[in-house]
Amino acid sequence: MQQIVVTALVVVMMIAVGLRSDPRDFRAAVGLRQLLWLFVLNLVVVPGLAVVALTQAELPQAVAVGVLLCAASPGGPTGPLFAMQARGDVAAAVVAMIALAGVSVVTAPLTISWALGLSTAVDASALIGPMIGTLVAAELLPLVVGMALRRWRRALAERLADPMNKAANLLLLAVLLGLLATKGGVLFEIGALGVGLSILLVLLNLGVGALATREAPQRRAYVMVTAVRNLSLALLISAAYFPDPRTDGAILTFGLFTMVLPFAAALLLKRRGPTAPAGPR
Fold first, then answer.
1. N or C: which end of the chain has fewer CB within 10 A?
2. Residue 32: is its pLDDT beyond 80?
3. Mean pLDDT, to the nearest integer, of 240-268?
4. If one looks up domain 2-269 in CATH, what number appears?
5. DSSP 43
């Protein structure tokens, strides 16, 4: 049941993102070189930091898997929201989030297999193909459908965007409440080390995002996009391939701090003063 609900959440969320996205936005808001560098930071540096941290920590294997799933799942949908709170370049944040969510269909299974082999001695190479197939069906295809509707039936896309976004938010709330109700006790099994490691990695991710560019509005946007991981994607992979309840507990713990800490950082950046919103480049 959990896998069905989480899959529905990801499908609805990606359709909602696609309904608000136009392929031409990618060229207008973010330069190719900047986007490639953002890929390196999110797809290589962030998971690499998680691997280094986990090899030094003695966490239960299932908990380590949950942390790695979060680190390997970029493009969390709340990144642009926090970018707006921080007075960053919202358009750049949206494009970066969409691009990262798209490429993660292929990169997340590869990263997870590589990272698990290094930090937990788990051989997940046999899962690469099935994971890619799952993500193509649940994430990439719905995104393409939403973008196609916006491209060819813009009026319909505009009408559907808000209801789909609300449906995605309700499903996310239902998933989180359901997991807390059924597996909330697992959070206590993660221990202080697991909580502390999650906090440390989220703070490091905030710093990694700042390396994406020197331009203040875009830097604030990429800080938020990099810090916020795709909790729905991590839960989808966990439900399908890593059923240990402690893995979900680790994802929920990491997800909590990937919401609270970026939100606090966004408020601090907002108080430091406004930046001029950047337009298309």
1. N
2. no
3. 84
4. 1.20.1530.20
5. I
Q: For position 140, what pLDDT does the model report?
A: 74
63-106 pLDDT, tens per residue?
888 999 999 888 887 787 788 778 888 778 878 887 887 787 77
The amino acid sitting at 78 is T
DSSP state for residue 277 in the 8-state scheme: P
The residues spanned by each domain of the chain are 2-269
Dist. CA 109–CA 193, nearest whole Å: 26
Q: What are phi and psi of 57, to 5 degrees?
A: -105, 150
Residue 76: partners with Cβ closer than 8 Å, 6 or more residues away: 97, 225, 228, 229, 230, 231, 258
Q: Token pair of 116, please? A: 């698990």
Q: What is the 3-state secondary structure (H, E, C) of 84-136?
A: HHCCCCHHHHHHHHHHHHHHHHHHHHHHHHHHHHHHCCCCCHHHHHHHHHHHH
Phi, psi (degrees; rounded to nearest 5) at 251: -65, -45
pTM: 0.72
What b/e string do you get for 10-32 counting C-beta neighbours within 10 Å, with b at 16 or more? Answer: bbbbbbbbbbbbeeebbeebbee
d(CA 155, CA 92): 24
Query: Which of 228, 219, 258 has the alpha carbon at shortest distance from 100?
Result: 228
DSSP label at residue 42: I
Please give the angle made by the CA atoms of 48, 248 and 184, to the nearest 5 degrees.
135
Q: Which residue has the tokens 């929920």?
A: 252
